[in-house]
Amino acid sequence: MQNYYLKLNEMIESHQVGASGLVVAGDSEILPTGTKFIVSETGEILAGNISKDMINVIIGNLLKSIQSKTPQSLTLSKTDPAFFSSSLSVSSSLTSDLTIFIDPIYPQPRLIILGGGHIALPLVKLGKLMDFQVTVVDDRPFFANSMRFAEADEVICENFEKAFQRLSIDSNTFVVIVTRGHRYDQLCLEEVLNTAVKPAYIGMIGSRRKVTTIMNNLQENGIPEEVLNPVYAPIGLDIGAQTPEEIALSILAEMVMIKRYGYSDGLKNQARGEKING
Amino acid sequence: MDNKVIETINQLVGEVRSIRDSQSEMALPRSAAVATIISTLGSTPRKAGAQVLFFRDGQIVGTIGGGCGEAEVRQHALRVIDQAKPAVVDINLTHEVAEDDGMVCGGVMKVYIEPATYSP
User: Fold this and answer.
1) Nearest CA of chain A to the CA of B100: how many Å?
2) pLDDT at A278 (0 to 100)
3) Residues of A numbered 105-144 whose beta carbons fall under 8 angstroms of chain B's beta carbons: which are they?
């Protein structure tokens, strides 16, 4: 039990993906109620008192939960051949049905803010409030310092191209581009689009006109339209935001929508101030 | 899964261990129970995976939606602490009491509760 919670913490802190299992209705002999276990992204047992045979019976469900990032409550009937045909030794040793709660383990999402200006300040605060691990990048020491961004987990003072070598963007990373001008915004966007793994979200600030200009430039640089399409620009949900704080809120709101729904009805897809469905 | 709940349970496990190691007869580790939503039906404030840790002394870490649904689970959690044994409870948010309090979610949820340092 001790190992289980220690391992969970370790996985969360070191950004590992996997699933935890909790027997909520168990078999007194084989898998008593309260049994807990952890498997890796590939189904390897990392903690817990559970047999490889038993994991093999539920491996499909474990992997499905990990992939869809969705928990599930799984009831295994002792008599259900679909579950136990592959492992008769497991089913014949059971004395009752089992219910196992499977919960995917995925790391704390990361927020990378490119540009340490006015909007970055409330973005860091809201990002922390929403439980993101927050990194701020700017090339100006006056803006990129941990005094200005006391709540940020990491502040990188480096020119943007160099900073990308240190960022290790993964599928759990949300990238917000809010630099001081569109030359840098374009440079950052190009770098983000070139990373090996696609981030969960890329948003770039700017008016519709600026966005069109940058997208055209990037297309001329040989980046195909389908690569540019997933970029959320103009950024944020339309809440009529004006102040830096309101804009930060609209950006975080869009990120939550992406996290929960996998898409956003943001400013990118609608004209300012107009509703999509009347 | 709630990272803050996991972190707090780890602290609790540490407390239990250091009290045991010190062999002090005065100190007693704080008792708590962890409740996890394992399935929901209809409209509920939180979905499967949400967790809350109820300490006997009243401290609460995490939430499974607050309001009288969570309060009801807390009553069960206190019993789980006393009996040192896990339980699964069905919480119904459709009944009148909930509506009287202005909580009209209308769903039901299944919640698994066990002592926070439970090991079968």
Assistant:
1) 30
2) 37
3) 105, 108, 131
Sequence-separated (6 or more) residues with CB below 8 Å from residue A33? A23, A24, A25, A26, B86, B120
Contact A101/B9, CB-based, under 8 Å?
Answer: no
A228 touching B (Cβ < 8 Å):
no
DSSP state of A269: G
3-state secondary structure B59-110: CEEECCCCHHHHHHHHHHHHHHHHHCCCEEEEEECCCHHHHHCCCCCCCEEE
The tokens for A249 are: 């809120």
Considering Cα of A119, then A121, then A126, then A128, what sign does the dihedral take? Answer: positive
Contacting residues of B for A20, CB less than 8 Å apart: 1
pLDDT along chain B (120 residues), means of 10: 90 85 75 95 89 95 90 96 95 67 72 91
- H-assigned helices in A146-221: 160-167, 182-193, 208-220
The single residue listed with the structure tokens 């609209």 is: A250
pLDDT in tens, A46-102: 999 888 988 988 999 999 999 888 899 999 887 776 666 655 566 666 778 889 999
Contact check, Cβ <8 Å, A34/B114 = yes
Q: What is the pTM of this model?
A: 0.78
Contact residues, chain B, for A35 at CB < 8 Å? 120
Name chain A contacts of B120, Cβ cutoff 8 Å: 26, 32-35
Q: Which residues of A touch B17 (CB under 8 A)?
A: 2
Residue A71, chain B, CB below 8 Å: the answer is: yes
The tokens of A212 are what?
A: 């069109």
Nearest to A1 among B6, B36, B118 (CB): B118
Where helices occur in chain A by DSSP H, the ranges are 2-13, 52-68, 81-84, 88-93, 120-129, 160-167, 182-193, 208-220, 225-228, 244-261
